[in-house]
Amino acid sequence: MLIEAKPHEFSLNLGSAALLIIDMQRDFLEPGGFGEMLGNDVSQLRRTIEPNKRLLTAWRDAGGTVLHTREGHRPDLMDLPPAKKVRGRSATCIGDPGPMGRILVRGEPGHDIIPELYPTPSEAVIDKPGKGAFFATDLHAILQNRGISQLVVTGVTTEVCVNTTVREANDRGYDCLVVTDCCGSYFPEFHEIGLKMIAAQGGIFGWTTPSEVIISAITGLNMLKGAAE
Ligand code: C5J
Fold first, then answer.
1. Alpha-carbon span 162 to 195, nearest angstrom
2. Is 76 among the catalytic positions?
3. Which helix (H) or strand (E) holds 125?
4. SS3 of 99, please?
5. Which ligand 1 atom minimizes the distance to the CA of 160?
6. How far is CA 171 from CA 90, 126, 175, 219, in A?
7. Which of 60, 95, 108, 118 has its CA 20 to 30 A from that of 127?
8. Model confidence pLDDT, tens digit, residues 195-211
9. C-alpha distances out from residue 165 to 8, 128, 215, Å
10. Which atom of ligand 1 is nearest to the CA of 162?
């Protein structure tokens, strides 16, 4: 099915596509979490929750593959590069006690995915220690084993973990369609530029489109399926 997108239409094949939802974690999105503790305006990220919910529901209803990622580290922090720990020179950093448990540590409440988008038992959750979802994870193997060659990417933040993941995916041969209203940044100008960087130069890293375009395409497909049954 052809999806209207920038820089030109994206040919979506639901059977070989996965919805990849990046780092929609409580510590980044919830008031009182680590993100807000650092002085960020979490409403910039929270505006993505409703569109993500609508897209996730439509994608699940269409029987599409869904994967979620979480940024975080082992409780013993052995996978936390010292450079990452001290970066930002914050008084409180990764591994320290935070408002929702130890900051960005696996198993802590703040590390988990927000309840609105919580994975079902059949949806893979990729725990990643870096910004990109391919670095030091089994994401590529999972996608290859399931015959996935297209990624519909949403999540936070647009210019950091979404962009890094899309660039990694592009280098591994995946076609990425990034969903504009389902991605967000604490910095609106970085969000805008982050999306522009993806679709620039004829789609140097991928395509961009709003969720409504994808939802109407896959909902139409469901209606066709329903009518044929
Ligand atoms: C993500 C970050 N998820 N900004 N992390 O973008 O540190």
1. 10
2. no
3. strand 124-128
4. strand
5. 6
6. 33, 19, 10, 31
7. 60
8. 999 999 999 999 999 99
9. 21, 11, 23
10. 6
Give the structural domain span for 53: 2-228
The torsion defined by the Cα of 202, 203, 205 and 211, in degrees rounded to 10, comes to: 170
Q: Name the active-site residue from 23, 27, 112, 175.
A: 23
The one catalytic residue in 128, 175, 176, 182 is: 128
Which amino acid belongs to residue 222? N
CA distances from 70 to 1, 33, 41, 104 (A): 30, 15, 20, 9
Q: 175 forms bridges with which residues in the sheet?
A: 150
Atom index in ligand 1 nearest the CA of residue 22 equals: 3
Is 128 a catalytic site residue? yes
Q: Is the pTM of this model over 0.90?
A: yes
Please report, for the domain that includes residue 12, its CATH number.
Answer: 3.40.50.850
Round the average pLDDT of the chain to a whole number and report it. 95
27 lines ligand 1 (CB under 6 A): no
- Tokens 């049954």, located at residue: 229
Domain count, the chain: 1
pLDDT band at 223 (very low <50, low <70, confident <90, very high): low
Residue showing tokens 């982050």: 194
